[in-house]
Write a structure and sequence with these properties.
alpha+beta; globular; five-stranded antiparallel β-sheet; D-amino Acid Aminotransferase, Chain A, domain 1
Length: 290
């Protein structure tokens, strides 16, 4: 039986679905938090101590979530994922992909380098550079935290508006052209697993921030060629096994990539999707072992 380390901050709906899907396919998911893992060196064994594995390595690791913590704590947790990959364990998603997606500036750079449509962006520590960039552009912009999720910390800025206080986002200015509307706010989420776009939805917001956790409503949408191909390309650009890709239409109807989430929640998406998302992900993990 293949034993899969399922890294999860706290047991939740996603962990239950994933454990059941892995079991249905002949594997066993051992849920644990990276907070409880350690490097144990000099005692023999693999050097990586994961609860439930008695000093042995798992056959694969599936990262559902990583708990927030200090810089040192997060560095250790990512280091453990790097070490598992260096030991030959398939890690899904691996630390490199997670690091790329958590850092919005690197995500934006990789999308740009891959030639994918994404809003004009400036990321800098320089207040002067931020002011010059804003003055050179006539459209509204969005100030974002470099690290953040679920729509937290976003601020929409009209031309002439003051920037948020410098310390709000850790002294880094991440500014992006606002793409969207003044009403009927919506964007798209596409889930890509193993290079296959498996599910998509419209997120319709009560404001321009459409995240489900901020009151966004999930609606089914057919997986079109343009949604699927752009979602697949975005996930490929960051090197992830699976990810949720946020897409938005501009005023001309062209799609742009906003973000790529390497540890996406999908409870809302599952509520409107015909496929079993956990089943797709479990199958991909076990396929990696073959």
């Amino acid at each position: 039986m293949r034993r899969i380390a399922l890294f999860i901050d706290e047991p939740d709906w996603h962990a239950q679905r994933l454990a059941a899907a892995i079991a249905e396919r002949g594997g066993e998911a051992v849920a644990c938090s990276l907070r409880d893992c350690a490097f144990r060196l000099g005692d023999g064994g693999a050097g990586i101590d994961i609860p439930g594995f008695d000093g042995a390595l798992p056959d694969a690791a599936l990262v559902r979530s990583i708990a927030a913590g200090s810089f040192e704590q997060v560095t250790l947790r990512l280091g453990l994922l790097h070490a598992l990959a260096a030991s030959g364990v398939p890690v899904i998603n691996d630390a490199r992909a997670i690091e790329r997606c958590v850092d919005k500036s690197m995500t934006s750079f990789l999308l740009h380098r891959a030639g994918l449509p994404t809003p004009a962006t400036l990321v800098s520590e320089s207040e002067a550079a931020a002011r010059r960039w804003r003055a050179s552009r006539a459209e509204a912009q969005v100030a974002k935290p470099l690290f953040g999720s679920r729509g937290r910390g976003l601020a929409r800025l009209a031309p002439g508006d003051a920037l948020p206080p410098r310390d709000v986002n850790g002294g880094v200015r991440y500014l992006q052209r606002f793409v969207g509307r003044d009403s009927d706010w919506l964007d798209f989420r596409v889930m890509v697993i193993g290079g296959e776009p498996v599910a998509a939805m419209i997120r319709r917001g009560r404001s321009w921030i459409t995240n489900v956790g901020r009151g966004g409503r999930c609606e089914p949408v057919q997986m079109s060629e343009r949604l699927g191909s752009l979602g697949r390309a975005a996930v490929g650009a960051v090197g992830a096994d699976y990810a949720g890709v946020d897409l938005i239409e501009d005023v001309d109807g062209a799609l742009l990539v906003l973000e790529v989430n390497s540890m996406p929640a999908w409870k809302g998406l599952q509520s409107v999707a015909a496929c079993d998302i956990a089943g797709h992900l479990a199958a991909h993990v076990l396929d990696r072992l073959r």
